[in-house]
Amino acid sequence: IYENPKTEKAAAQETHVHVPQEQDFLFEKTYTCPICDKEFKAKTVKIGKAKLVGTDQDLRPKYENIDMLKYDIILCPHCGYAALSRYFKFLTAPQAKMISEKISKAFKAQPDTKEIYTYEEALERYKLTLANAIVKQAKPSEKAYICLKTAWLLRGMGEHLDQTDKDYAKKKADNDASENEFLRNALEGFLAARQTEGYPMCGMDEATVDYLISVMALRFEQFDVATKLVSNILVSPGANPRMKEKARDLKEL
């Protein structure tokens, strides 16, 4: 009975809820290109800003209000050198020379003036990153990781297609086919890397890599590969309980 009546303005302010926009999670970070030595700014997701809401079976992360995968490529707009953020600074002199000769000479400068990237724009950045990795003769694990993340990006792209579009069915089928193609390449690359490289691999321990391979192998009905690697995880003293639980679920499938 002692409440003060609120003005219409105050009531309106209380009911207004700000819905974060994609650009709210981004800032411009300055990089120096290891190929052309020029400085440029690239869109980067603010650490701790985006809320993780879950992961797919193959560990693709899903965040609220933003797909962070769209911003994991660092692309020099001057020379065309592109890499996953994890690998951007790490180049040998011969690799830099190969990229300069085979990528940069044919690349046209592309000023980055947009607030956010569409899925189509992000996909082109991933494809250019894969081309760079092939040209510089990157390790199988790096190329596999690019393919895996490209597949994840395509999955997000498929989830955001307009279902009211009359061509939705065809676009979704084409998108799914592209996702599967990149996943097959990722599987092939990680299997090769497992035979020739050490750990951590792309920042992942052995159990995580084996789990990822198992999920992809199951998807393409390579049951012998999936069964063998799942068993390895379950008996591994180094695998954490969370990964072992995921491996048990996969074994049931």
> Could you say which overall geometry the principal axes of the C-alpha atoms support?
globular
H/E topology pattern: HEEEEEEHHHHHHH
The major beta sheet can be summarized as: 2 strands, antiparallel
What is the subunit organization of this protein?
single chain
Widest β-sheet, arrangement of strands: 1-2
Number of strands: 6
Whole-angstrom Rg: 22 Å
Q: Class by helix and strand content? A: mainly alpha
In percent, how helical is the residue content?
A: 40-55%
Report the end-to-end length measured between terminal Cα atoms: 61 Å
Proportion of residues in β-strands = 5-15%
Give the averaged pLDDT, no decimals: 93
Number of helices: 8
Q: Which parts are unreliable, with pLDDT below 50 for 5 consecutive residues or more?
A: none
Protein traits:
253 residues; 49% helix; globular; mainly alpha; two-stranded antiparallel ribbon; two-stranded antiparallel sheet
Please provide a written account of the structure.
It is a single chain. A two-stranded antiparallel sheet has the order 1-2. The chain has a two-stranded antiparallel ribbon with strand order 3-4. A two-stranded antiparallel ribbon has the order 5-6. The protein is mainly alpha-helical and 253 residues long. The mean pLDDT is 93. The protein contains eight helices and six strands, in the order αββββββααααααα. Helix 4 runs antiparallel to helix 5, helix 5 crosses helix 6 (206-219) and helix 6 (206-219) runs antiparallel to helix 7. A hairpin with a 6-residue loop joins strand 1 and strand 2. It has helices at residues 8-15, 93-102, 119-135, 140-159, 168-196, 206-219, 223-235, 241-252; strands spanning 26-32, 39-45, 52-55, 61-63, 73-75, 82-84.
